[in-house]
Design goal:
There is one protein chain. This protein is of the alpha/beta class. Helix content is 28%, strand content 20%. Strands 1, 4, 5, 6, 9, 10 and 11 form a seven-stranded mixed sheet that branches. A two-stranded antiparallel ribbon has the order 2-3. Strand 2 (23-24) and strand 3 form a beta hairpin. The longest helix has 14 residues, at 81-94. The protein is globular and about 60 Å long. The chain starts with a strand and ends in an 8-residue tail after the last helix.
Length: 232
């Protein structure tokens, strides 16, 4: 089974400038994703999809490949991750390189471990029907008991039928971790999408959209990996 890891890392972050190569606990944040992919032992190719020479230089320094740059179409604010995956897979196919599995691993996912990558891959490969597997996180509080505020500032339950329900009696619900996505290439590219998931601990996930998010992610990393040497 030949597998490709794609790490999307365009240069146009608005909220955190230079986000994909900004130092995180002493080294570029993208290096953690590259390291997890390489350490997993799952990939024939670990590549970074970017439109930036600076990002490419950092990626190569941490042993990822940058065999080509993104097109203008996939470098704008409206391009989706799916657009990037399709472009990369097609470019490799033009070179005669076919990968049966493809994993899109985000550049700003420093808490992802090689164990999680392997667990998701094993689940994907063990199910003939699944096209995709990705990590999800259980909501920390039952969403069935969420509140809404109307235009007059009045607060009430969104679903009042759960007003007297005990939290432990409500169905657990989950959200996308936003860290990586494993696909069977042909099945996913053909649009035959059947999704599965692995459940990961919320401590292994942190959205990084603001400077506060960044600090929280660093705190989690230092808590989870206290013996990791920093280059600071």
């Amino acid at each position: 089974m030949s597998n490709l890891c794609i790490i999307p890392a365009r240069s146009g972050s608005k909220r955190i400038p230079g986000k994909n190569i900004k130092p995180f606990c002493g080294r570029p944040i993208i290096s953690y994703s590259i390291e997890a992919a390489l350490e997993s032992g799952l990939f024939d190719e670990v590549m970074v999809s970017t439109d930036s020479e600076e990002v490419a230089e950092v990626a190569r320094a941490y042993d990822a490949n940058v065999p080509f740059f993104r097109s203008e179409k996939t470098s704008n604010d409206y391009a989706t991750i799916a657009d990037v995956i399709r472009e990369v897979v097609n470019r490799y196919q033009e070179q005669g390189r076919i990968f049966e599995g493809v994993c899109c691993l985000l550049a700003t996912a420093p808490l992802v471990t090689s164990d999680s990558l392997r667990e998701a891959y094993e689940k994907l490969m063990s199910s003939p029907s699944l096209s995709t597997v990705y990590p999800v996180v259980k909501f920390g509080y039952p969403v069935q008991r969420c509140l809404q505020i109307d235009q007059n500032g009045v607060v009430d339950m969104k679903w009042p039928e759960y007003r007297t329900s005990r939290s432990q009696d409500l169905e657990p619900l989950y959200h996308d971790s936003g860290t990586f996505y494993w696909h069977k290439t042909n099945q996913w590219m053909s649009g035959n999408i059947v999704r599965g998931a692995i459940v990961v601990d919320e401590n292994l996930v942190q959205d990084i959209d603001t400077e506060t998010d960044w600090l929280l992610a660093e705190m989690k990393y230092k808590m989870l990996f206290p013996n990791t040497k920093s280059t600071e």
